[in-house]
Write a structure and sequence with these properties.
By secondary structure, the protein is an alpha+beta fold. Helix content is 49%, strand content 21%. The chain starts with a helix and ends with a helix.
């Protein structure tokens, strides 16, 4: 059926005709352009992907450089203080007077600048308005781990972050340099503290990028661009890889925050011993590239399709002109017949276009989705996956056909035109089974059919199949995977005559009580269906078609427990039913 529709839409001129030659050339050129365009788009995507990955490493290195500059400048200030004569003379009183004259904040420190003797006692310090009270000296800091390494190594040292004594308590970073006497012996330390908060601002990245910092002890001290209470991540596998590599980028890894599939750039700030981390979900980092590639391919494909359509039209026009010229030469009678044939052909073309647009729309959409996923994942597509995709495209095309027909009926009614049923004698249960078979291909739900006998009457088969298809589609759409949908058909007998009763029952989300009175109105949808696709015209069209057959449709539903739709149709097509049909039409 789809092949016939495609042939009726696509004009293929006769062999040897000018239109055939022209169209063949266009097809060859179009195929080549599509192939070359796809290669260029793929190459452009790979190039931009590498640039995104390199950018992560460059940003981390930039932040590490800025931290190195800041820490280095503060260490230089501390070295200058440590080289003062009062320290080199080992004159504690003079050192105290010297520090008392200094302004720690003006020197770039957020807390104190202090002197520590070899026993781990702070003997002198500057004043700081950030402290709750001036420290009582000497102050014992032997419990702090940061004072021993610079005494033992004789080198400048940046300690691990800890919660300082500022008000309120905030994470601070200790910096220390050794004090040497004139003989070169280490006689103490000059130190200062920096708040992590201004440091973290220096390493902030663009919105959507997580900035993280791990200090030399393996403590996570900055998360999301903000200081945080130190958290030990020294045993994290990702951190171990970073410490080994020093600088670089990892793709598609689990971050320190345990988020999977991340792009992580990192670099080491040497004086502080920090690892600066730039982290972003890989999907978010590549999403603009995927969207751009999909857009480029969509534009390419759309342009080629438009070009083919134009070429097809030109080929058709060329051959028609040639045929018209031959017709004129054969005489007025032949020309009149040719004109009549052309008129009929054009009328048929208009009718075919209305139907045939469904097929290229399905093919273009399906191809675009397939190629976009292939470009995004850079993975080959296996035959089973391709077969499943083809089946899904076929099912979607069938649904689109039903929806378009439903819209056409609705448009006719809205324009004041009548719908005419094409009634034929048939088995209603067979129509029901066809609708069930069509819906079973859409989702993996169990549809149980309870039918014990044939129900023969006069129906418009395609429209009744659409009625049952709408009810089944809603039951499947609003039911969780693995649940059961039950369909039953029977005959009711009462004083008004025999009627067919078809019930469609699901165990889905149900319909809120306040929505039940309006559920069959056009564009009405349940208030609990947010996030579920739908137009709201299916049930309205279903009710109209049922009533057009002289029947009724009702619903019983409880929110959260499912719904049951009941369709009752008269078995006999009486004069009264014909009058009802005419009135509704």
């Amino acid at each position: 059926m789809n092949v016939r529709l495609l042939r009726s839409w696509w004009y293929w001129p006769a062999a040897g005709s000018p239109g055939r030659t022209f169209l063949t050339s266009v097809l060859v050129l179009t195929t080549g352009a599509l192939f070359v365009g796809a290669l260029l788009i793929g190459q452009d995507f790979r190039s931009h992907r590498k640039a995104v990955i390199d950018h992560a490493s460059e940003e981390a290195a930039r932040a590490a450089y800025e931290v190195d500059q800041l820490i280095g400048s503060r260490l230089s200030i501390l070295r200058a203080i440590a080289s003062a004569p009062s320290f080199r003379d080992n004159n504690l009183d003079a050192a105290r007077q010297y520090l008392a004259r200094l302004d720690a904040a003006a020197l770039g420190f957020d807390g104190l600048v202090f002197f520590v003797d070899p026993s781990g006692m702070i003997q002198a310090s500057t004043d700081s308005p950030g402290l709750k009270a001036p420290p009582e000296l000497p102050l014992d800091i032997t419990a702090r781990p940061y004072w021993r390494p610079p005494l033992e190594s004789g080198e400048a040292y940046v300690g691990a972050a800890f919660m300082g004594v500022l008000s309120p308590p905030r994470p601070v970073l200790p910096l220390l340099v050794p004090v040497r006497d004139w003989a070169g012996n280490v006689t103490g330390l000059v130190g200062g503290t920096l708040l992590l908060e201004p440091l973290s601002r220096d390493i902030a990245f663009a919105p959507g990028i997580d900035a993280e910092v791990v200090d030399r002890e393996g403590q996570l001290i900055v998360r999301g661009g903000l200081p945080t209470s130190p958290t030990d991540v020294s045993r994290d596998p990702l951190y171990a890889r970073m410490r080994t590599a020093g600088n670089g980028v990892f793709v598609d890894v689990t971050g320190l925050d345990q988020k999977p599939d991340e792009l992580v750039g990192f670099a080491t700030a040497r004086p502080a011993g920090w690892t600066i981390i730039w982290a972003q979900p890989l999907q978010a980092a590549l999403a603009p590239l995927v969207d751009e590639a999909a857009l480029q391919f969509g534009v390419l494909l759309g342009g080629l399709v438009a070009g083919l359509a134009l070429a097809n039209w030109v080929a058709r026009a060329v051959n028609r002109a040639e045929a018209a010229e031959r017709a004129v030469l054969r005489g007025e009678h032949i020309a009149r017949e040719a004109a009549e044939a052309t008129l009929q052909e054009r009328e048929q073309e208009v009718e075919n276009i209305c139907h045939d647009l469904r097929s290229p729309l399905s093919v273009i959409y399906g191809s675009a989705v397939y190629l976009r996923r292939r470009v995004a994942r850079a993975q080959p597509v296996t035959t089973p996956v391709l077969e499943e995709m083809v089946s899904e495209i076929e099912t979607s095309a069938s649904r689109l056909d039903a929806m378009i027909q439903e819209m056409l009926d609705a448009a006719q009614l809205q324009a004041g035109h009548s719908l005419v049923l094409n009634r034929n004698s048939g088995d209603l249960t067979e129509i029901l089974r066809q609708a069930v078979a069509e819906q079973k291909r859409s989702r993996a739900l169990d549809i149980r059919v309870n039918v014990d006998r044939a129900i023969v009457g006069e129906w418009d088969g395609p429209r009744m199949r659409r009625v049952f298809g709408n009810l089944l589609s809603n039951a499947l759409k609003f039911s969780p995977d693995g649940s059961e949908v039950t369909v039953s058909a029977s005959i009711e007998v009462d004083s008004t005559g025999d009627r067919a009763l078809v019930q469609v029952r699901d165990r889905g989300i149900g319909i809120p009580q306040r929505d039940l009175p309006h559920i069959f109105e056009r564009f009405a949808r349940g208030t609990n269906t947010a996030g579920i696709a739908g137009t709201g015209v299916g049930l309205a069209a279903t009710r109209h078609l049922v009533e057009l057959h002289g029947g009724t449709i009702d619903v019983r539903s409880q929110e959260g427990e499912g719904s049951t739709f009941l369709v009752r149709l008269p078995l006999s097509y009486s004069a009264e039913a014909a009058a009802t049909e005419a009135q509704l039409a």
